[in-house]
UniProtKB/TrEMBL annotation:
It comes from Paraglaciecola psychrophila 170. This is Aminopyrimidine aminohydrolase. SUPFAM superfamilies: Heme oxygenase-like. Catalyzes an amino-pyrimidine hydrolysis reaction at the C5' of the pyrimidine moiety of thiamine compounds, a reaction that is part of a thiamine salvage pathway. The keyword Hydrolase applies.
Amino acid sequence: MKHQDLINACQQDWDAYIQHSFVQQLAKGTLAHTCYLHYLKQDFLFLKQYARAYALAIYKANTLADMRGALLSVNTLLNSEISHHVSYCANWGLTESDMEAEDEDAGTVAYTRYVLDTGIKGDIVDLYAALAPCSMGYAEIGRNLSADENTKLQGNPFIDWITLYAGEKFQQSAAQGTAHIDTLLAEIDLESQRGQNLIKIFRTATRMETAFWQQGLNAALENNV
Ligand SMILES: Cc1ncc(CO)c(N)n1
């Protein structure tokens, strides 16, 4: 099987993630700042846990090449993506210590610990199936938004977010990640018990991404920013 089989098997859940109202409001520039700030803080906490999950991928790897690949992801997350996130958040008035002090919201705990638990319980392929919706989904969202003529480019307060995920650097690393997942999946038959279990993991993580967007929107109701 290939990564596209995972998406095809849960197309409805995938579309709900990729086309979520949070994403559409970002594209239009209409998202409430309360929602965006809540999302940014939770995403900082998410990325820290995500780095832990790639550290687990080093532990779970079977080959030296896979260990090095996962190490590269840990390094990129800690020294590039999270640092970038911190300096980006400073433009929105959030400091690193503000974000460190923030409590993890229920959706953040649920998603990240689901990924970690899946990896701890399962093998390297289970772990990558749980990690896959993150980079594959944001890359697709970035491509969609930059290709859509209705995306507001001028005067959109969220344009930096859009250009980050539409940008060459993120697109390239997501494509590498996807190619790696394809090599891991190559030996597995879609119809087998193993294949169906991987679909279930991928679909759960996809639903967690949708819940993560919704958690951002819900901040407007809770007034907790
Ligand atoms: C919740 C979430 N999913 C995916 C990405 C992409 O890195 C992100 N930053 N946050």
